Amino acid sequence: MNSNFIIKKFKALTLVAVSGLGLLAFSLPSQATIIDFETFYIRNNDSSIVAPFDSDMLITENATGDGFHAETPRSGQKVGYGTSALNGLRLNTFNTVNWTTTPSATGAHPYLNMWVTDGTNYAVISSENFYMGTDFQTRTEWKVFEFGAGTNLDWLLDSGTASRPPSQYLRKDGSNVSLADLADNVVLYGGPGVGATGVGTGAPQGGFGFNVIFGDTQSNFLGQYDIAELSVTVSSETYFAGTANVPEPATFALLGLGLLGMSLSRRKAY
């Protein structure tokens, strides 16, 4: 067999393989898990949770869907940015939350409200202090709100006795808990709905288990705030807020190889 023919055949097969690899890579989703968040209104300054809402209370999602701009200039106003994509995940596996920010109000910051249930009981686990980038497995500043009838919160723990002192921090046997202390059957869910026992006007609604909240009755939550590139890490998985799966740079590189291979193979055919 002619050696030149073998070389040409090998080159052609190589170009086809590169083309296929590039196009296959483009068709595969990015390794990043993109989840959808939604902006929503919670409460006017008069404690009303019914539209129309205060004209100076605003929350708008940014163009890439990975953050928001919020304005709550008056006490009592409250808005949120939530997702149902994390519903069903065990709260004791949550590790951290991160974002980038350009705050325009001194001391203002968003906080977490996470609806949880064991299948029967419900509550909001909240962090009102600045938590970005901290380790939720060791962080011991978690408050509990919006729980149903009764004061027994033992269902939240894997063992021991739960309590909620005037500080509102959830405690286990007298010490503040971390998320690692919570029971395995405590999972995020969409909440019990408006009017449920023990649920106030400041509770997030809309079926979102995970909520970043801005605005409240405390002055350090009022003003304006912007966040972007919001992400949540649960176990070894990181979830990024966004509107679509965006191919990573390596994927674009492989796509380029694929298109180049197709172009060269066509040129060789003539």
How would you describe this protein?
Helix 1 (3-27) runs antiparallel to helix 2 (249-269). Helices cover 17% and strands 29% of the residues. It folds into two domains: 3-30 and 247-269; 33-241, no CATH class. The radius of gyration is 25 Å and the shape is globular. The chain is α+β, with helices and mostly antiparallel strands and 270 residues long. The strands form three sheets. Strands 2, 5, 7, 8, 9, 13 and 14 form a seven-stranded antiparallel sheet that branches. Strands 1, 3, 4, 6, 15 and 16 form a six-stranded mixed sheet that branches. A three-stranded antiparallel sheet has the order 10-11-12, with no helix packed on it. The chain contains two helices and 16 strands. Residues 5-30 and 245-270 have low confidence and may be disordered. The two termini are 22 Å apart. It holds the Pfam family PEP-CTERM. InterPro entries: Ice-binding_C (IPR013424). Residues 246-267 form the Ice-binding protein C-terminal domain. Residues 1-32 form the signal peptide. It comes from Nitrosomonas cryotolerans ATCC 49181.
